[in-house]
Amino acid sequence: MIQLLCIFCTIYSTPLQESGMYGYRAPLLNKVDARCYENDYVRAWVYFTDKGVSTNNYDKVIQSVKRRMGKSSYDRRLKRGGTIDYADIPLKENYINEVEARGGLLIKESKWLNAASFGISKEDLDKIAELDFVQKITTVASFMSPNDTETAFLDSTIFGLTYNQLSMFNIDSLHDIGVFGSNVKIGILDTGLRRKHTALDNVMVIAEYDFLGGDQIYIENSPVTEQYGVYSDMAFWKTNSRINLFLTGDTIANNYPVRDIIKNQYRQGILSHIDFDKIQTLLSHHHILLILLPN
Asked: How many CA atoms lie within 13 A of 99 on its CB side?
């Protein structure tokens, strides 16, 4: 009877000692998930039993984590009522080093999971699982849509990575029948368009107008119209009455359209005949006004 009791104590002495570690979780009986053996090489999460922090030293370690935490992170926790706890303690570096020494290639650490992802060959899985501080090993979750991947690859020579976006509007079908939208004038109305974006380098802009800041017509670097826009009109409205129409040629200043103001200036000899023709052309250029709003 005495001999059996001694054997029992010898077998279970290690787990009882390890349970003195804060946040300790016992290793699984079968540490390695069977899916890890399906391929010669696997990306896997290696979960650890603890972070090398004893129950007695836990409070000291937490205080050390607080001191090393960045001010912005600490303030963010306080604002949201969050606490600094076991999940904020970094992984034990020696554990990671031991896994690497047995063939694991470190990819990512997660102090919240108390685990790290590694690239591991099938032959090294069991060697890593033998480590006492390894709780379990599972595959890193992944997702792939074969159909989407194949379609994007087949059309990459024409559309590249934009295929999925273009196919939603059947643009690819139009291209198949030879319709590409060449030599078509379009109007763009957008409050977030960056006028100097590289995508517009080869685009011929017929005309543009800024609704927000307002626009003016210049002749030889001198404005020949007042600047009217949403912002300036809102400020003007506080002290004056004015009908607000924000398109060039229709803007009202003291109930007189800009086009009429230009005509009056021309009659008074302020503008030359050539200048007036330039303005008229600008106000009614071709058949469409291309409107671009800056960011």
From this structure: 30
Tokens linked to 89: 């303690």
pLDDT bin (cut points 50, 70, 90) of residue 4 is very low
* CA distance linking residue 270 with residue 115, whole number of Å: 79
With CA atoms as reference, report the closest residue to 86 among 48, 119, 120, 43.
48
pTM of the full predicted structure?
Answer: 0.46
Per residue in 114-139, pLDDT (tens digit) is 999 999 999 999 999 999 999 999 99
The Cβ of residue 81 has, within 10 Å, a number of other Cβ atoms equal to 6
Amino acid 293: pLDDT: 38
Give me the phi and psi of 163, to 5 degrees please: -60, -45
User: In sequence order, what DSSP letters do the residues of the chain get, joined into one string?
Assistant: -HHHHHHHHHHHHHHHHHTTBTT--PPPSS-B-GGGGSSSEEEEEEEES--S-BTTTHHHHHHHHHHHS-HHHHHHHHHTT----GGGSPPPHHHHHHHHHTT-EEEEEETTTTEEEEEEEGGGHHHHHTSTTEEEEEEPP----HHHHHHHHHTTTTTGGGHHHHHHTTHHHHHHTT---TT-------TT--TT-GGGTT--------TTT-B--EETTEE-S--B-HHHHHHHHTTS------STTT-EETTEEHHHHHHHHHHTTSS-HHHHHHHHHHHT-TT--------
Domain coordinates in residue numbering, the chain: 19-139, 146-176, 198-283
**Token output for 209:** 């107008």
Cα dihedral 80, 85, 90, 92, rounded to 10, equals: -170
Q: How far apart are CA 132 and CA 109, in angstroms?
A: 19
140 close to 117: Cβ distance less than 8 angstroms? yes
Q: Are 119 and 39 in contact (CB under 8 A)?
A: no
Q: List, in order, residues 6 or more apart from 68 with CB less than 8 Å away.
A: none
Higher model confidence: residue 84 or residue 277? 84
